[in-house]
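[User]
Um, tokens okay?
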Amino acid sequence: MTYHIVEPEVAGGLGASTVLDRSCHPPVVQRLHYEFEGWLGDVLLESFPAFIVTEEARQALVQEGVTGARFDEVEVSLSDTFRETQPGTTLPRFVWLRPEGEPGRDDIATARDGRLILSQRALDVLRARGLSQALVEPFTS
């Protein structure tokens, strides 16, 4: 199977309610708050070291039977900048994508440096729902 390193759109940052364990690298997120600064429409987003996906994308990944991830709640908020630059924009529901797989074996995993690794199957599912801003390069284990 083919695998890719995927660097998703960064549409914001970690919000004030995020709880991180910074004693290791990459830091471990215990509670995630994603604050949007702007959004170009991708279904997969990042704010190091965390990833979020739309609920629709989550459902599609689960339906496809992808391995290596679990999903959790994320607190989402909009910055003043977002409200000023994208008035009237309604965000879809997002969930926290928590990669737990093994690189090169599971569909969703992270490299040691925290970058996201997706199988071709998982990448295809996300691309079909909107992933035009992500940088994608081959992953070799």
